[in-house]
Amino acid sequence: MQAIRHTSKLFRSPRKSSLRPSSKMSVEASSERPIVYDIPVSNHGARVRFVLYKKGLESMYDLKPPTSIGGLQSEQYKALSPQGKMPLLVLPDGTALPESEVIVQYLLEKHRDVGPSLLAATPELRAKANLITRLHDIYIASIQACMYRAMDSPEMRCKQIGDLAAQLDILDKAIVGPYAAGDDITAADGALFPTMVFCDFMLPTYFGWTGLWETRPKLKAWWATISQDPEAARIIKEVREALDGWAESDRWNKTGINAQVKLEGFKWSY
Asked: Where do the record's region annotations for Disordered lie (predicted)?
């Protein structure tokens, strides 16, 4: 079977169908192969793609955009993912698994005998990998939108940018090196590096950061290491190209971010 290519063309919406919504969802759910609903810019979806790439599973999974079943807020999609978020994995029997870390753990368990384990070598290092993933998911991913979404309150955006700086400092101390949890590349790296693409792209350009890497030496060394991994580099390219599209669409002006950053009395740069 032909490997999936992750380009913007891959995620184009299909032609409109005459199927009723319920029928259309049934068709998707009964696919011969599991379906991952995702788009290239999603840092959460990227961690799922990382596992697929790293373990050589691409030919076993179809990748489609949420728009192929109506979009994130459609009745069809929310019947499968009630939060209306991506990524979403739908198995051939119709079982729907939302949430990126749930999908990652399913893939690691389902395909434990295929490719690298993406697990750290010892219980202690596996605990460290889990900690790094939790630090990312609870304290960084939860506020990442302050870098790119419209917010009425510049005070709230400014606070979250400061919180993000503090959490990156904590993350810097947690990194073991050379990978997140030691000598082996793990799913913790996959959770972390797509979001760091966001930080690397947005914080210096739109918020004036000058010390994203320089003031965080362990994180800087880790970033240099993970960027050399072929599958990680592939995903970094995918996400960056999608972010280039955001920039070309003038997103940071349209969301009011550029105007807020120009206001006096706020600290944006770290």
From this structure: 1-26
* d(C-alpha 252, C-alpha 49), whole Å: 27
Q: Write the single-letter amino acid at 5.
A: R
CATH number among 3.20.20.370, 2.160.20.60, 1.20.1050.10, 3.60.60.10, domain 123-261: 1.20.1050.10
Is-above-0.85 flag for pTM?
Answer: yes
Which pLDDT band holds residue 6 (cuts at 50, 70, 90)? very low
CA distance 256 to 12: 28
* CATH number of 35-111, picked from 3.40.30.10, 3.30.565.10, 3.40.605.10, 3.40.1190.20: 3.40.30.10
The greatest distance separating any two alpha carbons of the chain, rounded to the nearest whole angstrom, comes to 57
Cα 5 from chain centroid (whole Å): 18
Cα 45 to chain centroid, rounded: 5
- Rounded to the nearest 5 degrees, what angle is found at the Cα of 186, between the Cα atoms of 200 and 179? 55
- Angle between helices 217-226 and 187-207 in degrees, nearest 10: 110
- HSE-CB for 105 with a 13 A CA cutoff: 9
Distance in angstroms (rounded) separating the CA atoms of residues 143 and 146: 6
Contact predicate 172/216, CB 8 Å: yes
Q: What is the pLDDT of residues 97-156, one digit of tens each?
A: 999 999 999 999 999 999 999 999 999 999 999 999 999 999 999 999 999 999 999 999
